[in-house]
């Protein structure tokens, strides 16, 4: 049952520390056509059964609840790989209808984006974040286990042509694999007008192979970039953005560092996640989830779903706790949560 605008009561997704979630990450599938070594094993994973995955109608309905009743202002589609979700363009178009003022973006590996960028822009998508860890074909293939660099480059170009900017690139550095390529990747991105952000590798891989001793830290990344560029901290307030921004060679070009592990930004977090099977997660590292799919399929009203979502967020923990002695990696890997 969809509520009429007059009986909608505006609530907020606020936790006990006063943080308000306004940025919703929606995973559209846990499947992917790459096999990044820091994300999943070569054989892939046991994908969610089809009947457990939210239908297009269900996804759009829950997004409508979040934007219409719960103060969510940004919706980011992710996965797994969101471009492999059949119906993506229609989901974006329908989201634009139910949330005309929300910022809509997608995080993607860009395989197939060359073909889809135009329709996604027409459907109402505002911008894309593309994941790219190396511009060398051999290193790209080593990390993703697929020889598809050319498709990513074509996808980026198509996204720019379609007006899906500012285009951000996310890169993860791996020791001994691509940590010697940070400056090269930045130079390449700047030449094309893409904003590059380096993300510290997190303990969210399906194989549980992450180790603090081998991850490349933000400080190491900054040191590597500083051999080729002059970096100065950007003056603009960071707010809840995870990236610390630096001007490159005096600006206006910038580079971002997302130091999730060594300089956590949990105190300013404004994110909430919806998995492809309809579970609300208040944090990437949450140890529990709140099921919205079961009540949704049992006929819950929008008001009831909103109330459940508010309750789900209240217990969000202060921080991800990676440094705590008792830290346990979440049961779901990043690809099944929605990065
Ligand atoms: N498949 C899409 C992509 O790669 O952009 C969307 C999902 S992917 C899980 C989202 C982001 O998470 C990517 O930028 C990827 O590099 C990043 N990621 C995956 N595993 C990670 C990990 N263990 N630590 C840090 N970032 C990770
Ligand atoms: Fe796929 Fe993205 Fe994971 Fe790479 S990081 S395997 S592209 S979900």
UniProtKB/TrEMBL annotation:
Reported cofactor(s): [4Fe-4S] cluster
Enzyme's top EC category: lyase
Pfam families assigned: Mob_synth_C, Radical_SAM
SMART domains the record matches: Elp3 (SM00729)
BP-aspect Gene Ontology terms: Mo-molybdopterin cofactor biosynthetic process
Pathway the protein acts in: Cofactor biosynthesis; molybdopterin biosynthesis
Residues that hold [4Fe-4S] cluster 1 according to the record: 32, 36, 39
Binding-site list for GTP: 25, 76, 107, 168, 271-273
Alphabetized UniProt keyword annotations: 4Fe-4S, GTP-binding, Iron, Iron-sulfur, Lyase, Metal-binding, Molybdenum cofactor biosynthesis, Nucleotide-binding, S-adenosyl-L-methionine
Annotated catalysed reactions: GTP + AH2 + S-adenosyl-L-methionine = (8S)-3',8-cyclo-7,8-dihydroguanosine 5'-triphosphate + 5'-deoxyadenosine + L-methionine + A + H(+)
Binding site residues for [4Fe-4S] cluster 2: 266, 269, 283
Enzyme Commission identifier(s): 4.1.99.22
Protein name: GTP 3',8-cyclase
Source taxonomy: Bacteria, Bacillati, Actinomycetota, Actinomycetes, Propionibacteriales
């Amino acid at each position: 049952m969809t509520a009429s605008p007059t009986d909608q009561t505006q609530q907020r997704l606020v936790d006990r520390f006063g943080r308000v979630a306004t940025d919703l990450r929606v995973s559209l599938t846990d499947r992917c056509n790459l096999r990044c070594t820091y994300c999943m094993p070569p054989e892939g994973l046991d994908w969610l059964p089809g009947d457990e995955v939210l239908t297009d109608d269900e996804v759009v309905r829950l997004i409508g609840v979040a934007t219409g009743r719960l103060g969510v202002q940004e919706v980011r589609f992710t996965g797994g790989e969101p471009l492999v979700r059949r119906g993506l363009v229609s989901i974006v178009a329908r989201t634009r209808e139910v949330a005309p003022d929300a910022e809509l973006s997608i995080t993607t590996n860009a395989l197939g984006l060359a073909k889809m960028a135009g329709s996604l822009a027409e459907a109402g998508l505002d911008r894309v974040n593309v994941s790219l860890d190396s511009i060398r074909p051999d290193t790209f293939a080593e990390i993703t286990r697929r020889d598809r660099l050319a498709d990513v480059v074509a996808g980026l170009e198509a996204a720019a042509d379609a007006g899906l900017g500012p285009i951000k690139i996310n890169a993860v550095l791996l020791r001994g694999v691509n940590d010697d390529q940070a400056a090269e990747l930045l130079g390449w991105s700047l030449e094309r007008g893409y904003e590059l952000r380096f993300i510290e590798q997190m303990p969210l891989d399906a194989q549980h192979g992450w180790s603090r001793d081998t991850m490349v830290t933000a400080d190491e990344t900054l040191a590597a970039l500083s051999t080729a560029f002059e970096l100065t901290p950007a003056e603009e307030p960071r707010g809840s953005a995870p990236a610390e921004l630096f001007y490159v060679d005096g600006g206006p070009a910038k580079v971002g560092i997302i130091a999730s592990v060594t300089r956590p930004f949990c105190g300013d977090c404004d994110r909430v996640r919806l998995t492809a099977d309809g579970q609300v997660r208040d944090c990437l590292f949450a140890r529990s989830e709140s099921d919205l799919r079961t009540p949704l399929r049992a006929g819950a009203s929008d008001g009831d779903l909103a109330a459940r979502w508010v309750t789900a967020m209240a217990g969000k923990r202060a921080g991800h706790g990676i440094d705590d002695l008792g830290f346990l990696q979440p049961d779901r890997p990043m690809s099944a949560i929605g990065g």
